[in-house]
Design goal:
Helix content is 63%, strand content 1%. With 932 residues, it is mainly alpha-helical. A 3-stranded antiparallel beta sheet has the order 1-3-2. The longest helix is centred in the first third of the chain and has 30 residues. The protein is elongated and about 120 Å long.
């Protein structure tokens, strides 16, 4: 240390330095942020080259463009269109089958009747006595009582069907088509067994997959016969839109043989299924293959089981899509719907089917049939012209003529639902009153009528065309009358939720009051069930979205009352929505609104399960509550504002983000009080005390550190020196606790800590020193702290030591660069004016830090980093001390270290040597090696 006894701090004139480094200011001729002038056009001299732009529109005058267009003739476009349509239909059918499998839960075990021997043959089935089975699930109880019923697991059943599909394909490839047909017939017989209702949709999806495979193989074989003769000679290439006249007699004979084989099957259902599988093969025989559909529709009427017949109709619709599109009309589809109406009416009115099977659960049966109705109805409307909707409704027997589309003729409710779902919005809007009549007279057990009213409401909301107010009022009035008849809150909500948008859109405030009153009455009687919360949430979100400000929503009758009765995630969603609206409209100043928002924030906070909640799930509520606290402004009533912050701290103690907001708001209040001309010293102390108490409850030490520093600055501005000293001590304590985070620290955190430590040093410039504690108390604390932290890397340590050296050099100046509160708080240059012990204390600390800095630089293992650290240390020393021989020697050694670690062309190295050469006295420049 003695070798540095003569070290002196470099004197600084901060005002002169600022002026010398400031850029000259000259008024600009033009606004640099204004719209730039258009660039000048430049003519390019040379040969003009034509470049093809694939995104450019077609030039009608260009012969090349016309030539390109001629490439796509009408036939090519037609083929491409049909091909893409077929691919789309196949994708839709595949998705629909997946939907069938996923929608209905399948039992783990499936009872297998005698007709399912093809499944039992390989599956690991076990026999059980009929006395242990539910006889009501059997087709023939007496027969199974004699023979017993075989049970097989659902997994084994599905596995066996996959094996059968592979066997059929393998037999076909080996030219054993008879075996393929026999196995497929056995698969179709499985569709006759409806003893396990829930399994039937899955069975249908798997079995029809096998039938489709056989149908495609038959089609390709006949097509090959038509294109290639027995000796392999190519006869022709059939176009995509071929007709029976293009087919040779040999291919027609083969096709007829397949239909004869299928026609000889005794059972009706397998015979229909297999003919449907090869339905598109009728194209080889007749000009209008779609004519066969009417015969097949009539044949399906012979299937007594409603479930089996419904899915058979579904498969017919699928197979008809393989026929030429232009030849298929929707007539057979309408017949299917009418037949299903008759069958469903029988199901609802009788306890058993026509062949004597008990209907244990007709509701389940209708649920299983519903997907078939939905698919057929979609097929009807797929390419239906809107002008023909009237004819279609007449054919569906829903009206007598097209003048009155919806009359009083009842319809099966489940069919009506899917009809409404597919009807165009314009048709629904024009006939809303008639549709309500139809819904009222179609009240049966097949479908809940409240869902039809709900669908009507949603359809009316979809319309972009405004309805006449009188018509809207008539429709809404009818719906409100219907909804009031529901004592059950769930059904009531189901209906009114769909019409809330219409009520809001047309300003029907009286109906809105009726709706909320109805909700309140039913909720008060039986409470709100969990399955009703989602619909209530939907209604409240619509109300909040409609009104421009929260006061209008809160003033609605029963709004707050209903919200208080809600619970769980639905209430939390509504509260979050309210807070979003409240915090985006500017400051909140109305006391009533603020009090209500405090209460709902408290409810949101209480709903959070803090021990088990994920951090991501907590972010949005925490951010919104914090935002709410930020937006509350009591204006000149600062004491009331501070009281509000105290209440929030107690109410929302589990949210760290909010505590940070509270500290920021408290400090802001203190600054606001300082700017006031009145004397608010006691209030400022209260704000500082609030922050001092709140900060330790925040869990993250780095956040505590930053808040302590922020509050210390506020205390300094208020002239509260003792408070600022305590806050800075707390900040140093936070730095010490950062050691507990070792192992989880990432580079971004380390950089943040470095920035914070530098801020502590810059803040300490304004803090008046204490004779009792020593003027270098806090810098010494930082110095000893970084030496005690094992996780601190040499590069990080070097920069902090440089900050401490810069601090001591700044404190030694006769005039400090900045002061607290515009000089009202005296700086150390006044408190310790020409105090030799003050300067000695600063020098003593600087010597220790300087020695430590040189040692730390050489501890860095990375060569490149060590070179940069040496230059950083050298810059710091040169700017802080006069370059006497001792300091010059230290700087020269650091530069030598940098030369060994960095390239000789390194710009940082060169600029540092130039700076040292500038600072050195003239007598020393010749003897020091300052060039590379």
């Amino acid at each position: 240390m003695d070798q540095w006894a003569s070290m002196e701090f470099r004197p600084r004139n901060y005002s002169a330095e600022e002026e010398s480094h400031s850029l000259p200011r000259v008024r600009a001729e033009n606004d640099p942020l204004s719209t730039p002038c258009s660039s000048k056009e430049v003519d390019v001299v040379g040969q003009k080259e034509e470049i093809y732009d694939p995104l450019r529109g077609i030039d009608a005058n260009s012969p090349a463009s016309l030539k390109d267009l001629q490439y796509f003739d009408d036939n090519s476009v037609k083929v491409l269109s049909e091909s893409s349509s077929v691919q789309l239909q196949e994708k839709e059918w595949s998705s629909f089958k997946k939907f069938l499998i996923q929608r209905f839960s399948v039992p783990k075990t499936v009872s297998v009747s005698a007709m399912s021997d093809v499944i039992v043959k390989i599956g690991k089935a076990s026999e059980r006595s009929s006395t242990n089975m539910h006889l009501e699930e059997l087709e023939d109880p007496q027969k199974f009582a004699e023979e017993g019923v075989r049970m097989i697991t659902q997994k084994e059943y599905v596995s066996r069907l996959h094996e059968l599909k592979a066997e059929i394909a393998h037999s076909w490839q080996n030219d054993d088509r008879v075996t393929s047909l026999k196995l497929t017939i056995k698969v179709t017989r499985l569709m006759m067994d409806t003893s396990v209702l829930q399994f039937y949709p899955m069975l249908f999806a798997l079995a029809t997959d096998i039938m489709d495979m056989l149908g495609d193989m038959v089609f390709e074989r006949i097509k090959c016969k038509a294109e290639v003769s027995e000796d392999g000679t190519r006869i022709c290439y059939l176009p995509a839109d071929f007709t029976s006249s293009d087919i040779c007699s040999d291919a027609k004979e083969t096709c007829n043989n397949w239909f004869y084989k299928i026609g000889s099957i005794q059972e009706l259902l397998p015979r229909i299924y297999l003919e449907l599988a090869i339905l598109h093969c009728w194209r080889f025989l007749i000009v209008q293959p779609a004519d066969c559909l009417k015969r097949l529709v009539t044949m399906i009427r012979g299937i007594a089981d409603p479930l089996a017949s419904a899915y058979c109709r579904l498969y017919m619709v699928h197979c008809s899509q393989k026929l030429p599109h232009c030849s298929v009309s929707v007539g057979y589809l309408i017949i299917c719907i009418n037949d299903m109406k008759v069958q469903l009416s029988r199901v609802m009115s009788a306890r058993e089917t026509s062949h004597g099977k008990l209907l244990e659960n007709p509701a389940l049966l209708i649920i299983l049939i519903e997907p078939t109705i939905e698919y057929i109805m979609k097929s009807i409307f797929k390419d239906l012209n809107q002008r023909h909707i009237g004819d279609m409704l007449v054919d569906l027997e829903l009206c007598k003529d097209k003048k009155e589309l919806f009359g009083t003729i009842p319809c099966v409710s489940v069919i009506l639902h899917h009809l409404l779902k597919e009807l165009p919005v314009e048709v629904v809007q024009s006939n809303a009153a008639g549709i309500i009549n139809l819904i009222e007279c179609s009240n049966d057990t097949s479908f809940d009528q409240c869902l039809n009213y709900r669908l009507l409401g949603f359809k009316l909301c979809e319309s972009r065309r405004q309805m006449e107010v009188t018509n809207v009022q008539a429709v809404v009035n009818r719906v409100i009358e219907v909804s009031t008849q529901y004592d059950c809150l769930e059904k009531y909500l189901t209906v009114v939720d769909a019409f809330v948008d219409i009520v809001l859109q047309y300003g029907m405030d009286n109906y809105l009051s009726i709706i909320l009153e109805g909700v309140s009455e039913r909720a008060c009687i039986k409470g709100i069930a969990e399955n009703e919360l989602a619909t209530l949430e939907s209604i409240f979100i619509k109300l909040l979205t409609h009104f421009n400000n929260l006061e209008d929503a809160f003033s609605l009758s029963h709004f707050v009352e209903i919200l208080d009765m809600m619970y769980g995630s639905s209430r939390s969603v509504i509260i979050v929505h309210i807070l979003k609206i409240a915090t985006r409209s500017g400051y909140l100043r109305d006391p009533t609104t603020i009090q209500f928002l405090i209460e709902i924030c408290q409810a949101l906070h209480d709903d959070i399960d803090f021990p088990n909640v994920k951090e991501d799930d907590l972010q949005q509520p925490a951010r919104l509550i914090s935002r709410f606290v930020q937006m509350v402004d009591y204006g000149a009533e600062m004491e009331r504002q501070l009281t509000f912050l105290v209440e929030c701290r107690g109410a929302f103690s589990g949210i760290n983000e909010l505590k940070e907001t509270l500290v920021h708001k408290s400090n802001h209040l203190a600054i606001k009080a300082m700017k006031d001309s009145k004397n608010h010293l006691s209030f400022i102390k209260a704000c500082i005390a609030f922050s001092e108490v709140t900060i330790p409850s925040i869990s993250a030490p780095i956040r505590q550190l930053n808040l302590f520093l922020e509050t210390a600055e506020v205390a300094l501005l208020g002239g509260l020196i003792s408070h600022s000293d305590g806050l800075l001590d707390s900040a140093i304590t936070c730095l010490e606790s950062l050691d507990l985070m070792n192992g989880s620290r990432v580079r971004a955190d380390v950089d943040g800590i470095l920035s914070t430590v530098r801020k502590v040093c810059s803040l300490f410039v304004m803090v008046p020193g204490s004779v009792e504690r020593g003027v270098t108390n806090i810098p010494k604390s930082i110095f000893f702290l970084i030496n005690s932290l094992s996780w601190m890397a040499p590069r990080f340590r070097t920069r902090i030591l440089c900050a401490v050296i810069t601090l001591t050099a700044t404190l030694s100046q006769k005039k400090l660069p900045y002061h607290a509160n515009h000089g009202k708080v005296p700086g150390n240059e006044l408190l310790f004016f020409e105090d030799q012990s003050y300067c000695e204390e600063l020098k003593s600390l600087s010597k220790c830090v300087l020695q430590n800095l040189v040692d730390v630089v050489h501890q860095e293992p990375s060569q490149a980093s060590r070179g940069v650290m040496a230059l950083e240390a050298c810059d710091c020393i040169m700017s802080s001390f006069k370059l006497n021989p001792e300091i010059s020697t230290i700087c020269s050694k650091l530069i030598e270290t940098a030369k060994l670690c960095l390239s000789e062309n390194d710009k940082y190295l060169q600029s540092t040597m130039e700076l040292m050469n500038k600072y050195l006295p003239t007598t020393q420049r010749a003897v020091l090696p300052l060039t590379v």
